[in-house]
């Protein structure tokens, strides 16, 4: 997730911005940049990679006169991670930084290009500065120009803008992405996308809400909402930097579970349109002649791949197979040119997956990567890439990366299904998709129940996680999460496989986590769970429907689409694993023996 900082004051603007960006490194980035303005004009620097590269480029700059500055760390969503695409973006006399995604940037960009505006970058952000200058050239009023600019934007954004036409002012706006403004006792004003960037600098802050915008100058924050002037609600700023990075959550994993709603929205922006799925990243002809999709991945990504095989065959009506990358490399696979080879990796550096991708490339077949890190090895190797837009994931046990993988795979299946489904069924999936950000939002009541239940699941000889259809891969993922962070033995199984051997383990010390969606094979799943209950297994049912044999019941909401139930149950499984691990006293974010990016075989 990109990071933003801003500063108005007499201090060393460069150092204030660099220090603020350093506190936001935990959010993840691939490039960084700063722009400072005082009586001598605007100076800016950009660099790819770590902040030290930016510091080195700006080492000669110094200014302690009154002025303004903005800075940004970029996690690429539109355009490659290079200096041209790095923020701040410039117009003729203004600079802008921006977090989020401008959903209608293509139409705005075309409109501006038709008027003769020349764009330098591939980003959506650049439209903001050119729109502002277009309106300001007409109005000769920077504030009104900024108001008209943000009125034209659709999507999620937190943005700061500085301009030579008003050299001691920072303009700001927030909608869907976080933004904080603060002040100290010396007349300085600070901005940040997280309060971590302001700790040690600002004394009090205001947490902007969606639709807020305004400007800051001379130590004062002028706030507006829906055209009306507001008094900023200032509160003291906490001083714990690690607490600030976790944004009030106990663990990064917990924060990332709670973030899933917003990152899924980011994943969908500009892709889930009113009547279709659209991917800018998919080149013309990628699917020409393709009769099969082979998906290859490891760990959590493999579970997303397995779930996608149901979606590709059911929606897209195209044959789909799934491979574990570490096995695929050595099985002497048959690769046909009518196959699209899809690889999935959060980091883009997973060694087994990368080597499988290279095998596919050598075989001359088309390749597509689903990845969270632009310019990673897998992204550079694949013919095309769809970025997940999950932002950095600090918890070793993947949560929001899995959520965005599933959303992208569902979108991709629907993208391929456009001419193979009835209009009614296609619309049904599109409408269900739009519900997912809300369903992925953590229900506090359910979280509290999971906390209470977790104390019952600290002993015994193991766990079965069971489900059918797409809920079988979700059961596998639930079992993996529990293993990774609680160190308890857990296995995921298709519900119907119990009687083919695993049921021999059933007794009162075996815990069964049963996924019981009402929209998909409910009666069949119920019958399988009754078999386990009859053998005295302890049953925890996750379902919208009451189940009289359940020892514990976690009620989900009534839904009409299986994927709606999938995402709601996904969140519950993540919370359950985390709360069991917490009760066992484990390091939730850094479980033993595991690494975030597996770059060895």
Description:
The protein is globular. The chain has 3 domains: 3-245, Glutamine Phosphoribosylpyrophosphate, subunit 1, domain 1 (4-Layer Sandwich); 249-439, Rossmann fold, CATH 3.40.50.10490; 442-601, Rossmann fold (3-Layer(aba) Sandwich). The mean pLDDT is 92. The chain is built from 18 helices and 25 strands. α8 (299-316) runs parallel beside α12. The strands form 4 sheets. The protein has an 8-stranded antiparallel beta sheet, covered by helices on one side. By secondary structure, the protein is an alpha/beta fold. The longest helix is centred in the last third of the chain and has 22 residues, at 562-583.
Largest sheet: 8 strands, antiparallel
Q: What count of structural domains?
A: 3
- Tally the beta strands: 25
CATH class of the largest domain: Alpha Beta
Query: Architecture of the largest domain in CATH?
Result: 4-Layer Sandwich
Which percent band covers the strand fraction?
Answer: 15-25%
Low-confidence stretches: none
The named CATH superfamily of the largest domain: Aminohydrolase, N-terminal nucleophile (Ntn) domain
Overall shape: it is: globular
Q: Largest sheet, order of strands side by side? A: 3-2-4-1-10-9-11-15
Helix content: 25-40%
Q: Residue-averaged pLDDT, rounded?
A: 92
Please state the structural category. Answer: alpha/beta
